[in-house]
Specification:
By secondary structure, the protein is mostly helical. The chain has a single domain, classed as Growth Hormone, Chain: A (Up-down Bundle), CATH 1.20.1250. It contains 19 helices and no strands. It has helices spanning 2-9, 34-77, 85-92, 94-108, 113-131, 137-151, 154-163, 168-179, 181-196, 207-225, 242-254, 266-273, 276-305, 310-338, 342-359, 367-393, 399-422, 433-465, 477-480.
């Protein structure tokens, strides 16, 4: 009775619900009241986007602030300029970050996101603060490992939670609004590092220490407030009425059918682990993300190599991130508008290719031309991230498929972080030939993987249109209802 009243409250009753039954479910095609849906979508946006944007920005800021600290005195005080100690410090972040992303999302499915994600955030905020008090590179190494431990669950968790609230072609621009937090975090990190430099010497601490102390304290404080304003899973979120929860479910059905994978058994686990889309989507994300992460870690150093002083180099990182922010928003809007992902990924590959080509010929370029090339490399690497994630997420269906698939994809970005942490070697300054060639090659790992994915999902849609997968409908009901995107009526998107 409560459910029927809830549906009536949002005008999704018999007069507004059309059932066609073409996707293996008697609710697979629904018409919902557009006014009620617009109001609900605004509410979802206000509850989800600001807080998760802040989470992601602080995560990124606390991860990359080591690049700003490096040129603010940390290198000399901790003797990171000996050998490749700085590269090792970046690398160690990923030692636990990579293997824990999938287990974290599996745990998240059974937890309340409003408690789990803020708890992770509080822990990494404290770790960031502690970094400001280290006196040896060995202690820095230990804290970088712990930072990776607690940050591991955030990005896959954000992708997983948000994917359960939005239709596929509403999702890209929302995901991008959260992922531009990388650009905001990068720009804010440069600005903050410039401002904090004035604190150098206060209470006996150099400026680089204040970068970690202040940023970590802000992160931990926000984490304490977050549980009071953050959403949970749609069916348990206290901010939505029963009627709104029903409408969220009906929107999910209307987005192409309720293709479920709610049971994790041997059959569903094999479907996840043998799904080629997840591996190609992970390579797509990893390739260009290598450029984005490498630029985030080394951009202040690279700009200093171009002849700017430390404080000037910090400030000159800001326009680069402002450019990537604007371009990410434009591309995400166009991607949802055109209901297309693949072409935008190739555009990012081409942009990064031009930037790397310029930098590989940097001895013949002016400082301003080299600086312009950094915009292209960063743009290709950072702007591609949310599109690559949206491309895969749009083509996965079912709770377990999305939980594990999104975590696997983001874990591949950990490998991108490892490559990005070691590709710019100090002994090759200022030309960094190995790093530039590696970045160029990885960009086209993305391009090739995205192309193979696009061709294969197009062919699979053609086969399903011809009924070549319909024999699956004759399988036992408990199997058919747990197929996820392997259901014959699911259609993939380019």
């Amino acid at each position: 009775m409560q459910k029927n009243e809830a549906i009536a409250d949002v005008h999704v009753g018999e007069e507004a619900l059309a059932v066609k039954g073409t996707h293996g479910s008697d609710e697979s095609s629904v018409l919902v009241d557009q006014t009620a849906e617009r109001k609900l979508l605004w509410k979802i946006d206000l509850l989800i986007l600001p807080i998760l944007f802040l989470f992601y920005m602080l995560s990124y800021l606390d991860r990359i602030n080591i690049g700003n600290a490096r040129i603010s005195g940390m290198n000399e005080e901790l003797h990171l300029d000996v050998g490749n100690r700085f590269n090792v410090a970046i690398f160690l972040f990923y030692v636990l970050y990579i293997p824990l992303e999938i287990p974290s999302n599996i745990w998240l499915k059974h937890a309340r996101p409003s408690l789990y994600l803020p708890a992770l955030m509080f822990c990494w905020g404290i770790i960031t603060m502690c970094t400001g008090f280290v006196h040896s590179y060995q202690a820095l190494y230990a804290l970088r490992v712990l930072l990776g431990l607690f940050e591991a669950g955030l990005v896959p968790g954000v992708v997983y939670v948000t994917s359960m609230y939005y239709r596929r072609y509403e999702y890209q621009k929302r995901l991008s609004l959260m992922f531009v937090a990388t650009s905001v975090g990068g720009a804010f990190g440069g600005l903050l590092a410039y401002a904090i430099a004035n604190l150098s010497g206060q209470r006996g601490f150099l400026g680089w220490r204040w970068i970690f102390i202040i940023e970590g304290a802000v992160t931990a404080f926000i984490a304490l407030l977050a549980p009071f304003i953050m959403v949970d899973w749609p069916n348990q979120c206290r901010f939505f009425t029963p009627a709104e929860k029903d409408l969220i479910r009906l929107r999910f059905v209307d987005d192409g059918g309720e293709f479920r994978m709610d049971t994790l058994n041997r059959d569903s686990l094999l479907r996840i682990l043998l799904d080629w889309k997840i591996y190609l989507g992970s390579l797509t994300y990893m390739g260009l993300t290598t450029s984005g992460l490498a630029m985030s870690f080394f951009l202040p150093t690279i700009l200093k190599e171009y002849g700017w002083e430390s404080t000037e180099a910090q400030v000159h990182t800001i326009p680069v991130y402002a450019f990537t922010l604007g371009l990410t928003l434009v591309m995400s809007w166009a991607s949802d508008r055109l209901q297309h992902r693949y072409g935008f990924l190739i555009f990012c590959c081409l942009m990064a290719t031009i930037g790397y080509g310029m930098l590989l010929n940097m001895e013949n370029l002016s400082r301003n031309a080299r600086y312009a090339a950094c915009f292209l490399v960063a743009g290709g690497g950072i702007c591609s991230g949310p599109i690559a994630i949206g491309f895969l997420s749009n083509n996965l269906a079912g709770h377990w498929k999305r939980a594990v698939g999104s975590a696997m994809q983001v874990s591949f970005a950990g490998f991108a972080g490892i490559i990005g942490s070691v590709m710019f070697l100090q002994r090759e300054a200022p030309f960094y030939r190995t790093g530039l060639r590696t970045g160029l090659g990885m960009a086209w790992v993305s391009g090739v993987a995205a192309t193979i994915t696009a061709v294969c999902v197009w062919r699979e849609n053609r086969k399903r249109d011809r009924g070549e997968r319909d024999e699956r409908l004759g399988w036992p009901a408990e199997v058919v209802n747990n197929l996820g995107d392997d259901h014959p009526h699911f259609r993939f998107t380019l």
